[in-house]
Design goal:
Elements: E1 16-21, H1 24-33, E2 37-40, H2 53-62, E3 67-70, H3 82-97, E4 102-105, H4 116-126, E5 130-133, H5 143-151, E6 156-161, H6 172-182, E7 188-192, H7 197-207, E8 211-214, H8 230-245
Parallel strand pairs: 1-2, 1-8, 2-3, 3-4, 4-5, 5-6, 6-7, 7-8
């Protein structure tokens, strides 16, 4: 039978696995166990703050997978003043100079909308790096409207969200709606917060996500301050590969 008559199965799209790293050891362990990308932070217990530039440089040197560094000057809120922005833009430029893959950032207005002006300034400072809008998104008044606003920024390639709930597992319908909204765009819904390896296969099937984000869920004892549990990352990678092979 000629090749032209063969029906070739459509290649499955790999589901991206992003893992939080807080140390060089974290980064190396996550990469070796199958993570596709790292989110580099400090102050895990505060939801993640800007890591030192020395840490960014060391992690970028230590791994081959992409490293996205968070830029968040404090954990008081996601509404930033002039002084906060001055610090954030300096950090964005320094992270770009440190050869990171991207910047993880998020900012809101006092009324719970995306701070478009602040985001535009951060994108300009990032000088071509990809932007992940972090879980500040989950504090917006209307997630679908907020997502639409972010689609207006070509540099925003990922939106990290739990669907507005404490855990992404509690907001599967909202996340599915966001995935539908993102379809065909330049932006990916990165589902995270509260995910566990045990619940991963069902979550992917229910939401149709193409990217997931793990923190405590792939650490020893589920503790965000503990080291990476390589076996959990390996299992998560295997489950995602199986889900992609099943047509999700």
């Amino acid at each position: 039978m000629p090749d032209s008559d063969l029906i070739r199965p459509r290649a499955a799209k790999r589901i991206l696995l992003e893992v939080i790293a807080t140390t060089v050891a974290d980064a190396k362990a996550a990469e070796q166990a199958g993570a596709d990308r790292l989110e580099l932070i400090t102050a895990f217990g505060e939801g993640g703050l800007t890591p030192s530039i020395g840490m960014v440089e060391a992690v970028v040197d230590a791994v081959r997978i992409p490293v996205n560094a968070i830029v968040r000057p404090h954990s008081r809120s996601f509404v930033f003043d002039t002084h906060d922005y001055a610090v954030m833009l300096r950090d964005v430029r320094a992270i770009a100079a440190a050869r990171a893959n991207g910047v993880v950032i998020g900012m809101l207005t006092p009324t719970g909308e995306i701070d478009r002006d602040g985001l535009a300034r951060a994108i300009d400072a990032a000088d071509g790096l990809s932007i992940t809008f972090h879980r500040a998104f989950d504090e917006t008044r209307d997630p679908l409207r907020a997502f639409d606003a972010l689609l207006g920024f070509g540099a925003v390639t990922n939106v990290l969200t739990s669907g507005g709930a404490p855990s992404a597992l509690q907001a599967q319908q909202t996340i599915r709606a966001l995935v539908a909204q993102a379809r065909g765009s330049h932006c990916t819904v990165l589902a995270g917060a509260g995910l566990t390896v045990d619940a991963l296969a069902g979550f992917v099937a229910a939401t149709g996500v193409h990217a997931v984000h793990f923190g405590g869920g792939v650490r020893v004892g589920g503790n965000g301050l503990a080291p990476i549990d390589a076996a959990k990352v390996v299992r998560a990678r295997a489950l995602l590969d199986a889900a992609a092979g099943g047509g999700n």
